Amino acid sequence: PGKGALARHGKYWYPVRIKSCRRSGGRALFTVKWWRHCSFKPNAQPPGEVAKEDLVDALYGDHKHRRMIRLGRWTHAHEVPQHEDVIANFRNIPYSININEALAPHGPLLTDIFEQPDPAKMRNTVPVLGYLADLSEKTGRKHTTVPYCGDLSLTDCAQIANWIYHHIRGASNQIINWLNCATYAHACTIVVAKHKKNQLQELVQNILTERHSSAPDVNSVPTPEEQANAMLQAAWLDLQLSYDQSAMDIDVDLECVGILEQRMFEESLAAGAAGNEQWGKDAGTHQDRWNPYEGLPEHWNHGDRDPYAPEFEGEVDCGPNFSEGSEPEVIKKESHTKNLKAQTAATAKEVTVLQSALDKKGAAVMWWRGSAQPLPHPPQPLPHPPQPLPHQ
């Protein structure tokens, strides 16, 4: 249980995570969770259990059985957007009506924060400026970045950034000066204040009571402006103390499929001929003529085995029963082109980077989109040899 594998659904094989196993009538049945980014055909949802003969591991080093398997189409684990990818890609995530309704009335103030922030005058209405001023005074160096976004969803965060980008004068040309800085943080505070108005009422009353007790001569009935400022203070506190639980969870399915895919597509001396694009070579094209080798991380190619060496000639030839489509069609043997190797290398290097200055010494936060980082540990050998593919 917990291991990644390939399960057969129809004539194609898709990634799954094994959850449990039971025996029924002398047969082993495995409960699996299919990778959520599989592209199944309409009205052809897979079963929750699969038989042992419909399940194989990554077949590491087993080129003969890999050649007999046609892969279904799915999104690679390393291509699934993560937290940094969503935020860095905010320009492609339009703001919603709710975000616009929350921020539009505060456009002039957000512009002032972006252009000429004044902590002395604004700290009551813009809590984050007071926070940054106090932090800078305490540490002896200027701070501009704000690490808080509360329990706002990734989509909310991206949409807030998108709104600022389109509505604050000059923001589109100076992303580094507002993303994760005071302008962005106060916009998040405003959204939290609107979304959680009822939940924050008790905290608002506590803030107003504390202010009245510290200045008893002040009118005990708060003005609308004082009420609004207290709500922003409460929202700012909530922004610092709350967090999105889903962002803290470990995506076990993503990690499971990522490890499975690295073993499936690794090109190395250890993987041998099996690592030289062998999937389906004796069976046929993959679902929708998908090329599963396109865009793979560069580090999966260890560079210690030359597929062009004379002794490896013919490894990528198709077998005599290779099917070029939905209906069986025998085609002549032909060598698989290696042009996609170069495309893969180029794709892996194309990343979008957004830098956000942490302090005046020049430290920066790097937002990477489309990058694929190496696994923290090299893949370990399977505890048992690859399961043989049953006769079809």
Task: Briefly summarize what is shown.
The chain has helices spanning 63-66, 83-88, 97-103, 107-115, 119-122, 127-139, 154-167, 182-195, 201-214, 224-241, 245-248, 252-265, 339-349; strands at residues 4-9, 12-24, 27-34, 49-51, 55-56, 352-357, 364-369. The two termini are 26 Å apart. A hairpin with a 2-residue loop joins β1 (4-9) and β2.
Structure commentary:
The protein is an alpha+beta fold. The chain has helices spanning 63-66, 83-88, 97-103, 107-115, 119-122, 127-139, 154-167, 182-195, 201-214, 224-241, 245-248, 252-265, 339-349, and strands spanning 4-9, 12-24, 27-34, 49-51, 55-56, 352-357, 364-369. The strands form two sheets. Strands 4-3-2-1-5 form a five-stranded antiparallel beta sheet. Strand 6 and strand 7 form a beta hairpin. The radius of gyration is 28 Å and the shape is elongated.
What are the SSEs and their pairings?
Layout: E1 4-9, E2 12-24, E3 27-34, E4 49-51, E5 55-56, H1 63-66, H2 83-88, H3 97-103, H4 107-115, H5 119-122, H6 127-139, H7 154-167, H8 182-195, H9 201-214, H10 224-241, H11 245-248, H12 252-265, H13 339-349, E6 352-357, E7 364-369
Antiparallel strand pairs: 1-2, 1-5, 2-3, 3-4, 6-7
How many DSSP H or I helices? 13
The rounded distance between the terminal residues' Cα atoms is 26 Å
How would you sum up the global shape?
Answer: elongated
Oligomer kind: single chain
Biggest sheet details? 5 strands, antiparallel
Strand content: 5-15%
Radius of gyration: 28 Å
Poorly predicted segments: 327-386, 388-392
Question: What is the average of the pLDDT values?
Answer: 82
Strand order of the largest sheet: 4-3-2-1-5
Order of helix and strand elements from N to C terminus: EEEEEHHHHHHHHHHHHHEE
Overall SS class: alpha+beta
Count the E strands.
7
Helix content: 25-40%
